[in-house]
Amino acid sequence: MAAIDTIEVGRNLAHTHADTADIYFVNAEGFAGEAVEQIMVPLDLTGIEAISIIANNAYGASGSTVCVKARLTGQRATNPVRSVNVVPGLTSEKFADVEILPWTSIAIGAAATISADIDVSLVKSAELHLFCAIVGTTAHLGTEFRVLARNEATVTDGWTTLNKIAMCSGKTALKLDIASTAVAGQKVIAVANPTAGNLNKINKNIFILDATVANSEICYQTAVGADS
Questions:
Q1: Which of 98, 108, 190, 192 could form a disulfide with 72 if both were Cys (CB 3.0 to 4.6 A apart)?
Q2: Same domain membership, residue 124 and residue 136
Q3: Nearest to 98 by CA among 76, 83, 82
Q4: Cα 191 to chain center, whole Å?
Q5: 44 Cβ partners below 8 Å, 6+ apart?
Q6: What's the pLDDT score for residue 158?
Q7: pLDDT for the residue 87
Q8: Which residues of the chain have pLDDT under 50?
Q9: Are residue 156 and residue 180 in the same domain, yes or no?
Q10: Which domain holds residue 196?
Q11: Which pLDDT belongs to residue 90?
Q12: CA dist 162 → 127, 144, 169, 187, 190 (Å)
């Protein structure tokens, strides 16, 4: 049982969060009760030169601001040949956490955020990791991610849609404040009256929006304390 006016999360905090940080969550159990979604999308990148990500928060006519993030992991050739030419016996290596988008805030109806081009010409296959968190309290119709690909090295208008994913659709988030500084490396977060504030649905993801958006993080809530 967590201490009075606190919640606990399953892993140590990656960042220190002052009392200016907000916690966003949904007052429901299970997946329907998460204000943040994480999706892993496998990509076959054979013959593709580059990919780019578009995050569109004008997907619905109404909704909330969101924070989005995208990372890429996978296998690439270690010899100077295109991935389309990789054959058994040629070596490859893992690459991890290529950050396509850091945590980025996008207001509802704002112009879409478009990532830089990511060179995947030596990549055999990859896993795209998409993260989307609601950071407002208006019912959210969804945020769209488009994965664009081009198979030519220099043509800038040759992009095609490789995949489209909608995230955080049909959810409404609530917000509570962090009551005092939560230090990186700890699991306890001070929150005034978390039960009355409906932050009492454990075993689900919550999202901490830091004053420095890049230091925001997803946490898995494991306990809630009584109200003072």
A1: 98
A2: yes
A3: 76
A4: 23
A5: 125
A6: 83
A7: 44
A8: 82-87
A9: no
A10: 1-35+173-228
A11: 53
A12: 13, 13, 21, 39, 43
Q: Per-residue b/e over 168-194, b at no fewer than 16 CB within 10 Å?
A: beebbbebbebeeebeeeebbbbbeeb
Instruction: Indicate the residue among 123, 142, 171 that finishes a domain.
Output: 171
What token pair was written down for 174? 């609530």
Sequence length of the chain is 228
Last residue of a domain, one of 152, 171, 190: 171
Per-position DSSP letters for 198-228, written without gaps between them: T----SEEEEEE-SSGGG-EEEEEEEEPPP-
Question: Phi/psi of residue 220, each to 5°?
Answer: -105, 110
Q: Residue 77's pLDDT is what? A: 66
46 DSSP 8-state letter: T
Residue-wise pLDDT tens digits, 43-72: 988 889 999 999 999 998 899 999 999 999
pTM for the model:
0.90
Same structural domain, 23 and 49: no
Count: domains in the chain? 2
At 84, give phi and psi (nearest 5°). Answer: -65, -20
Q: Would you state the structure tokens that stand for residue 193, as one six-digit string?
A: 């009256």
| CATH code (residue 49) | 2.60.40
Which residues are registered as beta bridge partners of 176? Answer: 23
Question: Is 165 found in the same domain as 85?
Answer: yes
Q: Which long-range contacts (CB under 8 A, 24 or more apart) does 112-116 make?
A: 112/54, 112/55, 112/56, 112/57, 112/58, 113/54, 113/55, 113/68, 114/52, 114/53, 114/54, 114/55, 115/52, 115/53, 115/54, 115/70, 116/52
